[in-house]
Amino acid sequence: MSDELEPTWLRDLRLIDELCHGNAELFITERKKADHVLKYYDGDLKRYEKGAERFDRDALSWEIVQAYADYHPEHQRMVDHLLYRRLGFRPSENVAIPASIYLRKLIEDSRNRFGMTWSEFQKTVDVHIKHVRNEFMQVNGWLDHLDLTSDDREHYKNCESHLKSEAQQLIKEFLGYKPDLEHSLYAEITIRKVLAEGSWTGLQAETRSEIRCQIVTIVKYLEVLYKFGRATADQSPLHGFDWEDSIQSEVLH
Q1: Largest CA distance in the chain
Q2: Alpha helices in 62-116 (DSSP H)
Q3: Which residues contact 157 (CB under 8 A, 6 or more apart)?
Q4: Residues 47, 41 contacting (CB under 8 angstroms)
Q5: Residue 102 CA, distance from chain mean position
Q6: Cα–Cα dist 95/103, whole Å
Q7: Which of 36, 114, 162, 240 could be 86's S-S partner, Cβ–Cβ 3.0 to 4.6 Å?
């Protein structure tokens, strides 16, 4: 029977037997993996494996998860607000959760310790949220392609290439200028993939704002990194929103 005429269920049974030695659970896992690689990594298994390595490396320990559950959870709403406000977007949980524990402690300490001014609190929070930004850059692979290869450029050439001009125009609007390609190659690919899902204006305003802040964060960090090095980039400014003095009483009292 030809592959074209073979029913899907029969083909799956054959593949289970031939490729997975009769292990149906392994077959399902591998098929989900293949679908994930195709959807999110354009079929590039090497890029997927790098992502998987980062996930394993940055997986949260049980101690951190337990501390997140138990340590002053009443402050988490404010922590979420601070992270979103200063970054301009919501970082992934494996980055946000460890930071949240520290920021909860800072809020608790600020309420129980005399002498911490609002300005001191802002500076301390910003120092830590810069660590969150730096982890975001590391964990999400934005530092994996500092020396662009021919494979990177080929990926840039072929990935949703019909959306290149629109993506570049959006990035130019975000930054106010057109960045160098080495600083923005994968950021542009990310925007192309967003546009491939639908129109930019069709996204909710908050989603557009988060994407904009992420792209600005990525490009600005890489610009400083290439010019001055990692240490300076790690201390570079945040590119979220300004502080709201209106929350001062809620944080410190």
Answers
A1: 81
A2: 62-70, 76-87, 93-112
A3: none
A4: yes
A5: 20
A6: 13
A7: 240
222's enclosing H/E stretch is helix 205-228
Q: Which of 157, 139, 140, 136 is nearest to 148 (CA)?
A: 157
Are 87 and 130 within 8 A, CB to CB?
Answer: no
Structure tokens at 28: 């399902």
Question: What are 39's two structure tokens?
Answer: 């959807």
Find, among 109, 136, 106, the residue nearest to 215 by Cα.
136
Q: What single DSSP character describes residue 198?
A: S
Residue 66 three-state SS: helix
Q: For residue 57, give both structure tokens.
A: 């490396």
Over residues 16-34, the pLDDT tens digits come to: 556 556 565 655 566 565 6
Q: How confident is the model at residue 53 (pLDDT cuts 50, 70, 90)?
A: low
Q: Which two tokens stand for residue 141?
A: 């692979």
3-state secondary structure of 42: coil
Question: Residue 98: helix, strand or coil by DSSP?
Answer: helix
What global pTM score does this model have? 0.75
